[in-house]
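Predict fold of THAP domain-containing protein 9; 112 aa.
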Amino acid sequence: MPSCIIVGCNNRTFRKSKKQEKIEEEQKITFHAFPNNKIRRLSWCAALNIPENSVKQNAVICSMHFHSKDFDKSSLVCVKLKADAIPHVRYVDTIVYICHMCVRLHYFIIFI
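Predicted 3D structure, encoded as tokens:
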């Protein structure tokens, strides 16, 4: 059972997280295999900044890493990507860490 290859993305086809279930209430998350075409495969790897030799044969990327314009909406049976679709890294939850010492020092410099 595959899970999305993107670092930090926890979407998977089995044992879905509560966050994934909440997203899927509004839109279904689909999973897409890397293309067999060497040029397209290399362009996907370049867009994701990963070496091609690190991509396993069963690796997939979830639909959260494609734009809505990348999907072929003509099929009623399954969700397909257009031939020119390129994934992108979209971080849903970005955590910002703040150095409290720097904040205090900045406050000290401004107000003293």
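The longest strand covers residues 31-33.
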